[in-house]
Amino acid sequence: MTLSGMALEHAILVSLSERSGTGYELARRFERSIGLFWSASHQQIYRVLKRMEEAGQVAVNVVAQDGRPDKKVYTVSAPGRAELRRWLAEPSPQAGVQELAVKLRGALFGDPAAAAAEMARHRDAHAERLELYRQIEKRDFPAPDRLRGRPLHQYLVLRGGIRMEEGQVEWLEEILAALHDDGKDAR
Amino acid sequence: MTLSGMALEHAILVSLSERSGTGYELARRFERSIGLFWSASHQQIYRVLKRMEEAGQVAVNVVAQDGRPDKKVYTVSAPGRAELRRWLAEPSPQAGVQELAVKLRGALFGDPAAAAAEMARHRDAHAERLELYRQIEKRDFPAPDRLRGRPLHQYLVLRGGIRMEEGQVEWLEEILAALHDDGKDAR
DNA sequence: TAGCTCATGTAACTAGTTACATGATTTG
DNA sequence: CAAATCATGTAACTAGTTACATGAGCTA
Q1: Span B7-93: which CATH code?
Q2: Comparing C-alpha atoms, which of B11, B1, B82, B79 is closest to residue B45?
């Protein structure tokens, strides 16, 4: 067991925590709601579910059906819930949008304060990166209107980085404000 | 040969087109300029360079050094240039920011009009996706201020999707405007 | 009757990561 | 003297993709 990465495992734990289901159903869910960003083939999901079952994170309930193959309905078991709670509280330093989305949708199955702390960490990290990119922009491209050819292309790539970081920071600010209100309300 | 995907190969072709270099150097470049988004370990790069050499896309020039191992300086060969030009003109339907950044930086080594056409395709695709997300937002979350718990988290994930698509569309608009001016100037 | 949905999987392959190994030179 | 830089690689592993296979029921 490596216990690093494990992204799809955690996405599955979140989805099955929301509602038990078959591998087939999970594959379809990943195409839709969570799958705004995430995608996973049914082959991949079947393989991972098998591994998770062997590791005791999920339990299977085989349901016989007539006219079509037996269904294997998966449910998160106690060790799976514990693992999910652990992962939700732990920092994911390299997390992209997808992984944060999974953590958000998992927030109800862990500690809400830990979720907010994780979002704040990422907001800070992206704000720092944004600041760095803006400094590079100012230093290397003081007059962007006059750029042509290669330097123009380099500049445009940097602009992409800036825009992506801006989007990320704003999104995380929105999340933190909303989670804050949500917490106030629950108290 | 599969010829699908091949992302790292093309990033290497672009980087070596800008300037010949060793695998080690490529690994460092990927940490910096292009590597705003891209990253590749030296192990991976060495393996891919070997494959590309066998395929005739790059040529090696072994440079003896004293006190340290021989350098292998790689240069793009004619078939490599052809393959790069082919890929630059071809649509990459699933391309993310990184891949578009590579295509941008490669624009000088292919047909500029084809590069602009590819960017326009992506702008349209992202604009369409954005429109879809906005419709889902309006339909499923008409009063976002009152959301709590799970629906709130679902809403925030959707907001992330909207912000990312907005960023992408605006970036691609900026690219198209700049490429247009650049082309006008060259004529 | 052709194609989609439900429901499972195997096999082969491609891509990428992590750990390990070597060894001189330069910098703090 | 320790750590980083230059410069190469192998081996083992994890993750993900693509192609193939089966087969009933339902829909246009």
Answers
A1: 1.10.10.10
A2: B11
Closest nucleotide (CA of A24 to C1')?
A: C7
What's the Cα-to-Cα distance from B180 to each of B139, B176, B186, rounded to whole Å?
37, 6, 10
B90: left (phi over 0), alpha (psi -120 to 50) or beta: beta
Rounded distance between C-alpha atoms, residue B133 and residue B120, angstroms = 20
Position with higher pLDDT, B187 vs B107: B107
* CATH value of A7-87 in 1.10.10.10, 3.60.40.10, 1.25.60.10, 3.10.180.10: 1.10.10.10
Residue A6 C-alpha from the chain's centroid = 11
Return the SS3 of B7: helix
A98-152 pLDDT, tens per residue?
Answer: 999 999 999 999 999 999 999 999 999 999 999 999 999 999 999 999 999 999 9
What is the pTM assigned to this prediction?
A: 0.92
Distant-in-sequence, close-in-space partners of A182: CB < 8 Å, separation ≥ 6: A112, B148, B149, B152
Q: What are B59-71's pLDDT values in tens digits?
A: 999 999 877 778 9
Q: Best mutation site among B157, B182, B184 for testing chain A: the one with the most A CBs within 10 Å?
A: B157
Q: Which nucleotides on strand D sit less than 7 A from a protein beta carbon?
A: 6-11, 13-20, 22-25
Which one-letter amino acid corresponds to residue A39?
S
- What letter would DSSP give residue A8? H
- pLDDT tens-digit series, residues A127-140: 999 999 999 999 99
Distance of residue A63 Cα from the nearest chain B Cα, in angstroms: 29
Residue B32 confidence (pLDDT): 78
Model pLDDT, residue A112:
93
Nearest chain B Cα distance for residue A177, angstroms? 11
Residue spans per domain, chain B: 7-93, 111-186
Q: How far is the CA of A22 from the C1' of D26 (A)?
A: 21
